[in-house]
Amino acid sequence: MEMESGSEKEETILEEIKAILDEVDNALASIGTDKFRVSIVDSIPESDINLIKIAGTSLTGRDWSSDFAKLQNLDALLSTRASESTLTDVKNLLDKLEDALASVGTDKFRSTIIDALPSGTNTIGKVNIEREGSVTHFSVAATAAGSTTIYTPATGKAAKVLGWSFYSDADVVVELRFATSGNVIAGLPFKGAHAMNCLGLTAPQGSADEVIEIYVSGAVNVKGWICVEEV
Fold first, then answer.
1. Among 1, 45, 51, 185, which one is most buried in terms of CB atoms within 10 A?
2. Going by C-beta distance under 8 Å and a sequence separation of 6 or more, which residues neighbour residue 111?
3. When comparing pLDDT for 91 and 43, which is higher?
4. Residues 65-79: tens digit of each pLDDT
5. Are strands 146-151 and 220-230 parallel, antiparallel or unpaired?
6. Domains of the chain as residue ranges with CATH
7. Do 205 and 220 contact (CB within 8 A), yes or no?
8. Considering Cα of 143, then 145, then 146, then 148, what sign does the dihedral take?
9. Contact between residue 136 and residue 150 where contact means Cβ atoms under 8 Å apart
């Protein structure tokens, strides 16, 4: 018994589809000439609506010839669109992709270092984390408006503020700031708390020998800490 090839099967199926479409084409071509035998059970009421135009366009018969002309392309064999070898190649690629995704988390890579690592303590597989700055706690009990120094850098050094946290207990203005320039590091317009970690940011820095102070506009208690690195 001979087995039909893939292309022969495809051609047979397409011929069957075309035959059906030809029948539909012939049926539609007889519109206006077909006759039907029907029984009227109830009389059909006469409508006073006669649709002649829609949006100013006159209603005319639909010409289907251009649509059926497009169906002539169905005569082309599927094998001319995608061969069996092409589909096989696509499947192989998808199989490889599935295998690759299945190994996520277990794959191992062999790498080659082109340039030598710089001298020092650089290592692969080890990360050294160094903590920067030092924490200074402060407590200010102000009875009136004014400023209180909370940090003084070493002679010739500038204070870089890496982080802070403080709170106030009264509805007055509180500013954590550099004393000489008056540059505000952080502030509160009323009682509350303020905290910040400048990790990854350019931290506020004063001038050499510039102290850090707490300024208040009235009586208030302010407590907290700042983390400072001297540079």
1. 185
2. none
3. 91
4. 777 676 666 555 555
5. unpaired
6. 1-28+63-120 (no CATH), 134-230 (2.60.120)
7. no
8. positive
9. yes
CB atoms within 10 A of CB 224: 22
Which one-letter amino acid corresponds to residue 109? Answer: F
Separation of alpha carbons 126 and 173, rounded Å? 46
Among 94, 99, 135, smallest CA distance to 224 is for 135
DSSP string, 23-55: HHHHHHHTTTT-------SSPPPPP-----EET
As given in the structure block, the two tokens for residue 4 are 């039909």
Positive or negative torsion for Cα 122, 127, 128, 134 = positive
- Phi, psi angle pair for 57, to nearest 5°: -100, 125
Query: For 103, phi and psi rounded to 5 degrees?
Result: -100, 10
